[in-house]
Design goal:
Elements: H1 7-12, E1 18-20, H2 29-37, E2 42-45, H3 51-64, E3 69-74, H4 80-89, E4 94-98, H5 106-111, E5 115-120, H6 123-132, E6 136-140, E7 146-147, H7 155-165, E8 170-173, H8 179-187, E9 192-195, H9 197-200, H10 209-215, E10 223-226, E11 233-236, H11 239-249, H12 254-261, H13 265-271, H14 295-315
Parallel strand pairs: 1-9, 2-3, 3-4, 4-5, 5-6, 6-8, 8-9
Antiparallel strand pairs: 7-11, 10-11
Helix pairs in contact: 2-3, 3-4, 6-7, 8-14
């Protein structure tokens, strides 16, 4: 048995307990199929796809891999019913839901034979996941890119807190970009990990090349949680961020922030490459991402680093 195989691997039918987050403007069929082909679970990011675009990406993923894959669906999506119908019609095996109540679609999806995982940022929502009957939980800490928890709970605090109240298969997310971090998450009680930023800056990611290049030059402190009144998101400190930050410091209302954000701001930045005026979402772990690598190399590195960390810890055991 592989030394990384566990109940997450058995649940999803994958080799390694490593899930690639379904990120807006990054997670298309090329990225998802590459991660699945190399032993993890690739997710398509439905949050930045029109329904028929998602159908196209699902069909292309099926052609590109014979391994399990899934779709991440934010529950605030405006065309949610159509998206759900597409994943059911296309027989997508796994769905990750996020940004909403786990009770909304879990039963509906499971009745159609779909494995359901829900993304949370607090132990209170872990209990709601238990009640809803999800198959697994992603607990995402404050370090993460994209939409985040208002409580600003770090991954190191969140994982043991969730494990205390739930026995469900648990994935850690937020600030994880190395095999050592996978080992740390498992030591805290996780069964596996969901990784976003490291895969967002891969060769197969659909993000704009200029966005990827910018991320490889970031230092600690170059990202910050913003827009907490309308939906917390971690942003690179570019010109758009400075405008938002000033408004927030002045006590701007949620409506003012929505108007400032406008429509398609994340697409403008991450997909079209407007590094000044776009919304640039990335996690804190970006400060140690200094190369744009193919998924195959990223997966090999994660597994090798995990095994080296395990060996190092075993050889350096301290007898209390």
């Amino acid at each position: 048995m592989d030394d990384m195989e566990n109940r997450i691997c058995k649940l999803f039918g994958i080799k390694y307990p490593i899930i690639q987050a379904g990120m807006v403007w990054c997670s298309g069929w090329r990225l998802a199929s590459a991660v699945s082909n190399h032993g993890g679970l690739g997710l398509l990011g439905a949050g930045s796809m029109h329904p028929e675009t998602l159908r196209d990406h699902i069909q292309k993923t099926k052609l590109a891999t014979d391994k399990p894959f899934g779709v991440n669906i934010p529950l605030f999506y405006p065309e949610l019913e159509m998206i759900m119908k597409i994943v059911a019609d296309e027989k997508v095996p796994i769905v990750f839901t996020s940004a909403g109540s786990p009770g909304k679609y879990t039963s509906w999806l499971k009745e159609r034979g779909i494995i359901v995982t829900h993304v949370i940022a607090s132990s209170a929502f872990a209990l709601k996941c238990e009640e809803a009957g999800v198959d697994a939980i992603v607990a995402e800490g404050f370090e993460a890119g994209g939409h985040n928890g208002k409580e600003e709970t770090t991954t190191m605090t969140l994982i043991p807190a969730v494990r205390r109240v739930s026995s469900l298969p648990l994935l850690a997310a937020g600030g994880i970009g190395s095999g050592e971090a996978i080992m740390a998450a498992m030591a805290l009680g996780a069964d596996g990990v969901q990784i976003g930023s490291r895969f967002a800056i891969s060769e197969e990611s659909s993000a704009h090349p200029d966005f990827k290049k910018l991320v490889t030059g970031l230092n600690e402190g170059d990202t910050k949680l913003a827009l907490k009144k309308i939906g917390p998101v971690r942003l690179i400190k570019n010109e758009f961020f400075q405008v938002v930050n000033k408004l927030e410091q002045e006590g701007a209302s949620a409506d003012t922030l929505r108007i400032t954000l406008g429509r398609s701001r994340a697409k403008k930045g991450m997909f079209e490459g407007d590094l000044a005026d776009g919304e640039l979402e990335i996690g804190q772990i970006a400060s140690i991402i200094d190369e744009i690598l193919p998924v195959e190399t990223i997966m090999k590195n994660l597994v090798q680093e995990y095994r080296q960390a395990k060996e190092r810890l075993t050889s350096n055991q301290f007898d209390f």
